[in-house]
């Protein structure tokens, strides 16, 4: 780990990621954002767009702080093999057997239990819990206050909205959106938007 980090994505989510970086000991924190009209994010400078990463990659650790899973994945593929940091808030609880992939951020008060695997560039947001033996594939966003029970499999780019619940032993396939406050009680095998309690396909 270096003591400088560059964060791609200067939205509100980026600000929260910056503070986790600070708490992880990064002394210098700067941003890139593809909206060229932005030049500050809270107390941090925005020094260019994501294309400028080449100028910083040798000196700075890097992370993508974009909440939209598809956009985050697109940016990841432009980075051409730059290894991303993992950021875990000091107030998160992550079991020592859990495996956390590059580019993943685990936010304050999240809990990741035994033998969980969280792959690349995921967001485990504030106070979310992921229970034992679950597998969270690449570019997933688990929103604040979500609870995922044991041995759940969540596919690539799926977004579980704020306060959602997923019952144990289920699979949710790639590219799903689970509405805020919804409860998933059956496997989801077709990509789409699901909401309600129990969650049903709405789109
Ligand atoms: C699921 C969601 C993405 C759907 O948004 P949308 O694609 O614009 O869809 P709509 O608002 O048109 O809703 C479609 C239907 O699903 C229902 N619906 C939407 N969200 C719902 C929810 N959370 N729970 C129950 N029903 C819901 C709507 O009432 C509507 O039903 P109708 O057709 O009978 O009127 C959105 O409602 C949602 O929950 N987003 C999550 C936001 C979030 O968690 N943000 C946290 C960021 S960290």
UniProtKB/TrEMBL annotation:
Acetyl-CoA binds at residues 141, 162. The gene is pglD. The active site is at residue 132. Substrate binds at residues 11-13, 33-34, 67. It holds the Pfam family PglD_N. NCBIfam families: NeuD_NnaD. Keywords: Acyltransferase, Transferase. InterPro entries: AcTrfase_PglD-like, PglD_N, Trans_hexapeptide_repeat, Trimer_LpxA-like_sf. GO terms for molecular function: acyltransferase activity. CDD domains: LbH_AT_putative (cd03360). Residues 4-79 form the PglD N-terminal domain. The record marks 133 as: Increases basicity of active site His. This is UDP-N-acetylbacillosamine N-acetyltransferase. Its EC number is 2.3.1.203. It comes from the Bacteria.
